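In keeping with the milestone schedule agreed at the kick-off meeting, the structural modelling team has produced records for the first pair of proteins. Each record is given below as a sequence line and a structure-token line. The laboratory manager (R.T.) confirmed that both were archived under the project's standard naming scheme.
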Amino acid sequence: MRYLMTTKASSSVPDEKLFQEMAAFVEELTASGALLATGGLAPEGIRLVSSGDEITVTDGPFTEAKEAVAGFALVEVRTKEEAVELGRRFRRIVGDGESVIQQVFGQ
């Protein structure tokens, strides 16, 4: 089962300890084969809205910084509970904030 884990931007400034803990976490997940992709996201984006035959294209950013998704990880695990546990471990490393875990359907 694949899950997309996203995290919203935070006002906290990362320190060396956070970088070390996150590097170890990413290394562990990569070695186990659970981590398929990870990355940060720019606050800008392009919104496409369709209505009938018309498609409107608008440049972003679109939300307040605190609402924007700042990063993601795509993981492959056996159960939803495993995905939640990885999310818990991530939140313990990065501290206060918000993440969302969604199952990815298809290949």
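The second protein of the pair:
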Amino acid sequence: MPTPRVLATPAAEATIDLLREQHGPLMFHQSGGCCDGSSPMCFAKGEFRVGSSDVWLGQIHGCDFFMSAAQFEYWQHTQLMVDVTKGRGASFSLEIPLGVRFLIRSRLFTEEESRSMAPVYDGEEYVGRSAEA
């Protein structure tokens, strides 16, 4: 089984469940700057348009997770863990009205994990693949 590039904590999954009840299918994008810096942002699926400058890293709790390609260059050797903490962030992410914010914890992949990495796709390629399914 390939090594997942992105995971979610049980607390993050519970928050995703609450947001999914309110907003329907969701997606995540982690940019490299604006608002909360490099915090993952949660949107209603399709509300954030991804393209060739984005990379699909996998899914967390049934939600696609994308990152800007420029930031992926720095983070490609780390496994990301999406977590949630109390406190309002300064972003447009859907969890903000709940008084919490998503955040990333990371660790370097082991050599063994690096040999069996899950594939990544650029945003346009992934959107095309998912439309075919």
